[in-house]
Specification:
The chain has 76 residues and is mostly beta strands. Helices cover 7% and strands 51% of the residues. The protein has a three-stranded antiparallel beta sheet with strand order 1-2-3, with no helix packed on it. A three-stranded antiparallel beta sheet has the order 4-5-6. The relative contact order is 0.16.
Length: 76
């Protein structure tokens, strides 16, 4: 089973599609006029790993690091 992420960036919006076996299973759209933190796609750097909690703190360029569960990252 193949899993892929396709991202398309434009001036007004960024679109990302998650595929499994060449079929779209999720689509995310971020528009410049509607910026939110939750649900967006970020590129970041893992700063701290918490093995006991199966999680990590990730620097995504905000004031505080983001919290990421391992299970949320494993699917992709």
């Amino acid at each position: 089973m193949g899993k892929d992420i396709i991202v398309n960036c434009g001036r007004r919006e960024t679109r990302a599609a998650f595929l499994e076996d060449r079929r779209v299973v999720e689509v995310y759209i971020e528009r410049a006029a509607q910026q939110r933190v939750v649900g967006n796609i970020y590129r970041g750097r893992v700063e701290n790993v918490l093995p006991g909690m199966s999680a990590a703190f990730v620097n995504i360029g905000l004031e505080r690091n983001a919290f990421l569960y391992v299970d949320d990252a494993r699917d992709y």
